[in-house]
Amino acid sequence: MAFRSVNGIIIPYISIQLPEKLPVRYVPIGPKHNTDIAKNGVEYYLRSKGYHLDQITVSKSVVSLRY
User: Fold this and answer.
1) Looking at the 3D structure of the chain, how many domains does it have?
2) What's the pLDDT band for 67 if we cut at 50, 70, 90?
3) Is residue 25 within 8 Å of residue 55, measured between CB atoms?
4) Does residue 46 have a pLDDT over 90?
5) Considering the domain boundaries, does residue 40 fall inside one?
6) What contacts 6, CB < 8 A, 6 or more positions away?
């Protein structure tokens, strides 16, 4: 088990080894204030891992942000 800090909270997680590339076809971006930044970040990450964005749909959620 490993740990990381997010907004001052310690979060435990388990690191696993995945195949070099998974068969990704769709990545939804959940409702948040900065969905454009999140979408750009996901697309950048996918490109850096060798995925072709013409084969993957990255879309913003249509669900409204609630507090």
Assistant:
1) 1
2) low
3) yes
4) yes
5) yes
6) none
How far from each other are the two terminal CA atoms of the chain, in whole angstroms? Answer: 31
Distance (Å, whole) CA 55 – CA 26: 9
pTM for this entry: 0.65
**Pair 4, 11: CB distance under 8 Å:** yes
E strands, the chain, where?
2-6, 9-13, 26-29, 57-60
| Residue 2, in any domain of the structure | no
Model confidence at 47: pLDDT above 90? yes
Residue 29 CB: number of other CB atoms within 10 A? 19
Q: Looking at the chain, how many residues does it have?
A: 67
**Dist CA 18 CA 24 (whole Å):** 13
